[in-house]
């Protein structure tokens, strides 16, 4: 019995979903035929130079609006100019419209960085450039070691920071020495 | 739950600061968020990683220490057990249930009795001795096995690059 009562809402839901799916399917070709296709097809035909041309004449106009009007008249700068001069308001572009960007290389460039993000080196990462080239702190062993754990939160934070920096700078100094030793040792 | 996790992390932070293990510096990026740490690990001596300092980020789950943190290197690390995006793949970072290959012993895996310090020490020894059975970076693993010279050259190159030389 319980199964029966459960089934009725299920059937109703099924019918509603089916109806929506059919409606969506039927309305799709009409939409797809006009808007996105038109935008996609038209966009490559106009060049950023054409948009610049119009934008220079009418700096008050939005570049996207200009691009949209150009893409609709096939990149005819004269026609767009005429339209603006005659006082007609240019149509607002649809949200899906992508005007060509002045830098044609943009898509290619945005595609490459995620593949291999260049990791900043430690000196850049921890802002140590200013501390390079200085000799090591005079006899670091003899200095009273900064207390590793402090009751003060800010002091703790700066101690940790200091330990990080020292670790990196020490490694860098050591590596530099090694390089120098290798360079001077090589000819011998 | 969250507060017991922060308390435990704070305790570990205190321990690591008062008595830091050789070649390791670790602590929260800021104490406002105890669940994100940054660690520096020194490359073990006698390995191509020698002389390097490797920063890594540790992200702790809200139910730490029941679940392990995730660890990710912030510089290029060419190593069989480090994914190309820097994520570290070793048994101590895996909870006991999560072992589809059954090659790891339960004792090596994460449990609440492990700690940040143990993770970092394990990662340090992982740098010295890659685990060839579960490569995270297949190319690095193959190179490590077949062309050790080339592998070491890349590692040394990365070390120098990371020190800005």
The helix-and-strand class of chain B reads alpha+beta
Mean pLDDT of chain B: 91
DSSP strand count of chain B = 4
Q: Which bin fits the share of residues in helices of chain A? A: 55-70%
Distance between the termini of chain A: 97 Å
CATH architecture of chain B: Roll
Sequence of secondary-structure elements of chain A: HHHHHHH
CATH topology of the domain at 48-98 in chain A: Helicase, Ruva Protein, domain 3
Largest sheet, strands/sense/barrel of chain B:
4 strands, antiparallel
Low-pLDDT stretches of chain B are: none
Strands of chain A, count? 0
Structural class computed from helices and strand pairing of chain A: mainly alpha
Q: Remind me, CATH topology of chain B?
A: Ubiquitin Conjugating Enzyme
Q: How far is the first residue's CA from the last residue's CA of chain B?
A: 45 Å
Q: Radius of gyration of chain A, Cα only, in angstroms? A: 33 Å
Low confidence ranges of chain A: 31-42, 104-116, 138-144
Helix content of chain B: 25-40%
Description:
The complex is a heterodimer of chains A (188) and B (165). Chain A is an all-alpha fold. Among the domains of chain A are: 51 residues, Helicase, Ruva Protein, domain 3, CATH 1.10.8; 49 residues, no CATH class. Helices cover 60% and strands 0% of the residues of chain A. Chain A is built from seven helices and no strands. Chain A starts with a helix and ends with a helix. Chain B is 33% helix and 17% strand. The model of chain B has no long low-confidence stretch (mean pLDDT 91). In chain B, strands 1-2-3-4 form a four-stranded antiparallel beta sheet, with helices on one face. Chain B is an alpha+beta fold and 165 residues long. In chain B, helix 3 crosses helix 4. Chain B starts with a helix and ends with a helix. In chain B, strand 1 and strand 2 form a beta hairpin. The chains are: A mainly alpha (188), B alpha+beta (165). Chains A and B meet through helix 6 and helix 7 of A and helix 1, strand 1, strand 2 and helix 4 of B.
